[in-house]
Specification:
This protein is an alpha+beta fold. It is built from six helices and seven strands. The strands form two sheets. The chain has a five-stranded mixed beta sheet with strand order 2-4-5-7-6. It has a two-stranded antiparallel ribbon with strand order 1-3. The model has no long low-confidence stretch (mean pLDDT 95). The chain binds adenosine-5'-diphosphate.
């Protein structure tokens, strides 16, 4: 717990001091310097986004860890989440020149907490977009017996073997600078793992450096 708080303080430090620095420079005269003022404002905006992402992930972690957390388990249409992913991420992916391939899973009902599972998908797809420079992100869904196997595949930068366990730890990033650049908090995968754990569904990773990554898990059909 103490380590966690030390980590949070460390994570807060950079964006807070950066924002403070840029604002003070603007006040001290840079505001009327058209060569730099817009650039500073964009930097302030980027750092504020980082703070917002961190705040939002910390709220999620505190909810997951609260003793009162009870899952709202229900049968729901997996396609609702697929449509939501399309709405939420397609433009962002396309703007980066990436193809986002999301299947139509009409009439496939799975059992779980829809809101929390939506957050699992959202984190995995967001990462796939963030860590892929060109190519595509594909979701593949296959039904077998009373289960559904879900795979989120990208052909991005990949993750070398030595980090396959560590990336699920809070605040661990393979490349700090890269994660910060994309507004990452280092908390997404720990949230994903936690949510899937309480669904009794382990997260699996296949990835090779430079070749891409595949995150997969199963959901049950009730
Ligand atoms: P972040 O906010 O940094 O993305 P995550 O907990 O979501 O934090 O992921 C932890 C780290 O795992 C990332 O910083 C990145 O190094 C690595 N990672 C996660 N997803 C992918 C992916 N699809 N491809 C390559 N690396 C990834």
């Amino acid at each position: 717990r103490t380590q966690f708080i030390a980590n949070i303080s460390h994570e807060l430090k950079t964006p807070i001091f950066a924002i403070k620095g840029f604002v003070e420079t603007l006040i001290d005269g840079a505001l009327s310097d058209d060569e730099v003022n817009m650039e500073f404002l964009k930097k302030i905006s980027h750092q504020s986004n980082r703070l917002e992402n961190l705040f939002s992930d910390l709220i999620t972690i505190s909810k997951i860890q609260s003793k009162e957390l009870s899952l709202s388990l229900e049968n729901f249409e997996l396609n609702d989440i697929m449509l939501w992913l399309k709405d939420t991420f397609e433009d962002e992916a396309n703007q980066k020149g990436l193809e986002l391939i999301i299947p139509n899973t009409k009439k496939l009902q799975v059992y779980g907490d829809k809101v929390w599972l939506q957050s699992v998908f959202s984190n995995l797809v967001k990462n796939a977009i963030n860590y892929t420079a060109e190519g595509k992100i594909t979701i593949i869904i296959k039904k077998f017996n009373k289960q559904v196997k879900i795979r989120i595949i990208d052909n991005g930068i990949g993750i070398s073997n030595e980090y396959h366990n560590r990336i699920f730890e809070r605040f661990f990033r393979v490349d700090q600078a890269r994660s910060r650049e994309v507004g990452g908090t280092g908390l997404g995968l720990s949230i994903v793992k936690h949510i899937l754990d309480i669904h009794g569904s382990p997260i699996r990773l296949k990835s090779r450096l430079g070749q891409g990554s595949e995150f997969s898990f199963n959901l049950v059909i009730n």
